[in-house]
Amino acid sequence: MENRVVVTGMGVCAPNGIGLSEFVQSLKNQTSGINFHPELKNLNFGCQIAGKPDIDNIDLNKYFTNVQLKGLNASGIVYGVMAGKDAWEDAGLTVTPEENPDWDSGVIFGTGILGVDKFRESIYKVDEGNVRRLGSTSVVQTMASGISAYLGGMLGCGNLVTTNSSACTTGTEAILMGYERIKLKKATKMLVGSCSDSGPYVWGGFDAMRILPRKHNENPEAASRPMSATATGFVPGSGAGALVLESLDSALERRATIYGEIIGGAINSGGQRAGGTMTAPNNEAVVRCLKSALEDSKIKAEQVDTINGHLTATAKDPAEIKNWSKALGRKGIGFPYVNSFKGMFGHCLAAAGSIECVGTLLQFSENQIFGNVNCEDIHPEINKIVDESRIPRSTLNIAPKIIAKASFGFGDVNACVIFKTYDFE
């Protein structure tokens, strides 16, 4: 028998909320975390707004020792450690003593570009001939697995400790990787999630591609417009989300809080064929991924009552809705409720999937479906497929039972996870 897998802890460091309490209130009240950044204006960015977690008043000594903080210049690692340690604590877990690793607990924490500011700092020192002044932290803060290494050591995890990287699919992929490991009884608990650095060196490439909005620099809160006819591109964001996955038997034995159950999912690629490219999805692959997630979950399409989409506020939003409709065989008033949280904090790149999965699961504990912002003018192609009542503009007092969450990324990669409320038996 395979293990059933549940979520027993969560943490988040998002542009519109740090910690579960602040984050859930922001989602319920539709509070934006998108702001104007003078630094981007000074650097001649077309898009001068972004979603960035406000950690200025956070006591980082709660998460790092003074030694760890010395020379720390990697925002993604800071966000990831904050979210990861908060999730561990939220699950009611303690840190393993130094002399005894926890062989049954592991970490899969993904990222895209990590430690870019530290890397820039290091390059200047090397170019100036000051190699000896790099210090001992330049490698661990710039290697992709730096975030999982930090968390694995802080928590004393002795099972698989690794980092995945699949562009904007990263966070959702990490969750499915951890789920599979527990399901197959290779681990009892896995801390999973993802993080993304902040700043112009991460966001600059997207600005150069002209896929970021340029008309809302003076009105940041209106800029991110998923499913809207007036969407002009995604607002870049950053942060981290983290979840503690655990076998159901272990969770029940500990009498842990259970946020929800993962009942299945799927990951695939379109191979950059049949319309799929480095930056655009192969629609057939997306439909296959969504259908495979349903099959893996052993549920019927009509059982999905809510979708949390990738929906980035680009020209691809209508295509995504069309793909959901094809995969589920549902449209009009029969389409599930659908939402995108990116209207409130932008597209957090590698961190997007994990942050949005935290928000997705919070809908179970709140017995609500959170609304969408900035889509008063729904795209006409979406209107042809979905009845407007299925795209809530404000929080609905409706308790979801099964939510499908999907993420799609550069490289033509796709991931979909299916969450279900846990019914205590």
UniProtKB/TrEMBL annotation:
Protein name in the entry: 3-oxoacyl-[acyl-carrier-protein] synthase 1
Reaction catalysed by this enzyme: (3Z)-decenoyl-[ACP] + malonyl-[ACP] + H(+) = 3-oxo-(5Z)-dodecenoyl-[ACP] + holo-[ACP] + CO2; a fatty acyl-[ACP] + malonyl-[ACP] + H(+) = a 3-oxoacyl-[ACP] + holo-[ACP] + CO2
Domain called Ketosynthase family 3 (KS3): residue spans: 2-421
Subunit structure: Homodimer.
Pfam family, one: ketoacyl-synt
Subcellular compartments: Cytoplasm
Any Gene Ontology CC annotation: cytosol
GO BP annotations listed: fatty acid biosynthetic process
Enzyme class, spelled out: transferase
Family: Belongs to the thiolase-like superfamily. Beta-ketoacyl-ACP synthases family.
GO molecular function terms attached to this record: 3-oxoacyl-[acyl-carrier-protein] synthase activity
PROSITE patterns: KS3_2
Organism of origin: Flagellimonas pacifica
PANTHER family xrefs: 3-OXOACYL-[ACYL-CARRIER-PROTEIN] SYNTHASE 1 (PTHR11712:SF306), POLYKETIDE SYNTHASE-RELATED (PTHR11712)
Keywords for this protein: Acyltransferase, Cytoplasm, Transferase
E.C. code: 2.3.1.41
